[in-house]
Specification:
Length: 378
């Protein structure tokens, strides 16, 4: 029996590009949103294979640029194509400054029950440096509006490791974020591709380079502080109140099937992986021609590739990977196959092993890549 499917819908529009952004998003293309929504519905219809949805996630870009009517149309289509329980986790990413209480009330009535806010920082200077279009006050207001409109599951995204951001400044943002009472927090280190404006500013000497040691200190400070505040650190970058772990992202980390629809969306079902085109014009053009959205890559992942993904994604979770599950899924005895690597990583203090399975240590969470490559297929 096929597992339940996690549905991802990519909304690649933003008012303007943040200075660090390398996501697939397009600024000043809001006029294309109505056609894009129709194209998304069409792609969904063509690619849905039935079954039951375990979660629905509108990610971006800035999904909150879609009107409630547009989000509702997509949800109605999804509910007609799949079996969807009324309470299924249904998330929308939104940016402060693009949502208000009326808007949030309308989308909550559509069955959207989880709001993920791109807060990033609660310091106005840092927000300006990141090129965010909102202020800290707007971020606070967005959380209040979410509560007033009945959202009981709110997640905040924050960024650390920002040039010039001191440890105390990061702590201030974190403390204030916790005071806002989110059920879930995602903390990401600033990661800069060469071609983004912030990298250029650093190259020109306008800002100090990212300090990786300081970023590691900020991460560890967050681990300690959030534990003291009762948040469960369930994945390298994610913390939640008990029971508020993100079901949608858990599907990725557990290598459950997911269907991605829209520009640049990825899917992986039954060992078949597909990435849609990243080109918005091409996506819209194919829709006008009544053709299926083109794939950028489309491949079968072999058994070895699936095993490696399951190890890497599973190790991202604090509970790690279970030997029994790996044996059931892949017929592989991890200790038999990777005994030397595991012993070495345990010796280096990066990995913990017990009779149940493997998990990253606190140090291993900081140096995950040092661990992951040791399990690469031969
Ligand atoms: S809001 Fe997100 S997707 Fe949009 S430009 Fe900023 S970082 Fe990129």
């Amino acid at each position: 029996m096929t597992d339940d499917i996690a549905l991802y819908l990519h909304i690649p529009f933003c008012h303007s590009r943040c200075s660090y952004c390398s996501f697939v998003s397009f600024e000043r293309r809001e006029a294309d949103i109505p056609t894009y929504v129709s194209a998304l519905e069409e792609e969904l219809t063509r690619r849905a294979g039935g079954g039951r949805l375990s979660s629905i996630f509108f990610g971006g870009g800035t999904p909150s640029l879609l009107s409630p009517e547009q989000l509702g149309r997509i949800l109605t289509r999804a509910r007609g194509l799949f079996s969807v329980e009324e309470t299924v986790e249904t998330s929308v990413e939104g940016n402060p400054g693009t949502v208000d209480e009326r808007y949030l009330d309308s989308i909550r009535r559509l069955g959207i029950n989880r709001l993920s806010l791109g807060v990033q920082s609660l310091d106005d200077e840092t927000l300006a440096l990141l090129g965010r279009t909102h202020t800290a006050a707007q971020a606070r207001q967005a959380v209040h509006d979410a509560r007033n409109s009945g959202f009981a599951n709110v997640s905040l995204d924050l960024i650390y490791g920002i040039p010039g951001q001191s440890l105390p400044a990061w702590r201030d943002t974190l403390v204030e974020a916790v005071r806002l009472g989110p059920e879930h927090l995602s903390l990401y280190p600033l990661s800069l591709e060469d071609d983004v404006p912030l990298s250029e500013t650093i190259r020109r000497g306008g800002l100090p380079a990212v300090d990786l040691d300081l970023a590691a200190d900020q991460y560890e400070a967050a681990e300690d502080y959030l534990a003291s505040e009762g948040y469960h650190h369930y994945e390298i970058s994610n913390w939640a109140r008990e029971g508020a772990e993100c079901r949608h992202n858990m599907a990725y980390w557990r290598c459950a099937p997911y269907l991605g629809v829209g520009v640049a969306a990825h899917s992986c079902i039954d060992g078949h992986r597909r990435a849609n085109t990243r080109d918005l014009d091409e996506y819209l053009h194919k829709f006008q021609l009544r053709e299926l959205c083109p794939a950028e890559t489309d491949e079968e992942i072999g058994a070895e590739g699936q095993l490696w993904e399951a190890i890497v994604m599973g190790l991202r979770l604090t509970r790690g990977i279970e030997f029994a599950r790996m044996r059931d899924l892949f017929g592989v005895d991890l200790v038999g196959r990777y005994g030397d690597e595991i012993a070495e990583l345990v010796g280096q203090g990066l990995l913990e092993k017990d009779g149940r399975g493997l998990r990253l240590t606190r140090r291993g969470r900081l140096l995950g890549n040092e661990v992951f490559w040791r399990f690469l297929p031969q």
